[in-house]
Amino acid sequence: MDSVRSPDAAPVPVKIVVAGGFGVGKTTTVGAISEIPPLTTEAEMTSAGVGIDNAGHRVDKVTTTVAMDFGCVTIDRTLKLYLFGTPGQARFGFMWDDLAHGALGALVVVDSSRLDDSYPAVDYFEQSGLPFVVAVNAFDGALANDLESVRWALAVADHVPVIAFDARDRLSVRDALLVVLDRALDRAVSNSRS
């Protein structure tokens, strides 16, 4: 059997999870790069969330993801990424296992001005063993803390990439997802050697 892919073969589907705390830019990340109109499960925020859901400096946030976001992007003729964005609030955390099932890796989106909201996502992927990248969203084009401070504050291991990106910018999101793919490939190669 010939192991070379046919030039007209369908791209290999790869599942990537886009995770993080509430209001960090997960929905924006998926929407910025998806080649289809993204599926979102946004619901209006109500007064019941006051004091529970804190979007930080984003006072204009009026909706929240209650199930997931979904989008896809073809990287090249051999690879297509299917992006699954998680809800950010702890009360929807029960969905994370289902969303992460079968994923090759994860992009953990972080707001560097609200690092406390990032601990659950980082902990989840450290415990699951799924390769992940910490992507610090540059709200308004700037980071509240430098990347080394973010790494230290979140106690992220040295082998986990911590990068800056802009969730609104398609090319920036693409570059962040390519780091996730590199991380997953590194993991696969090291596992095959053991």
Automatic annotation (TrEMBL):
Gene3D superfamilies, per this entry? Answer: P-loop containing nucleotide triphosphate hydrolases
Q: Which InterPro entries match?
A: Gliding_Motility_GTPase (IPR052705), Gpn (IPR004130), P-loop_NTPase (IPR027417)
- Keyword GTP-binding annotated: yes
CDD domains given in the database record? Ras_like_GTPase
Q: Which keywords label this protein?
A: GTP-binding, Hydrolase, Nucleotide-binding
Keyword DNA damage assigned to the entry: answer is no
Q: Name one Pfam family in it.
A: ATP_bind_1
Family, per entry: Belongs to the GPN-loop GTPase family.
This one is known as ATP/GTP-binding protein
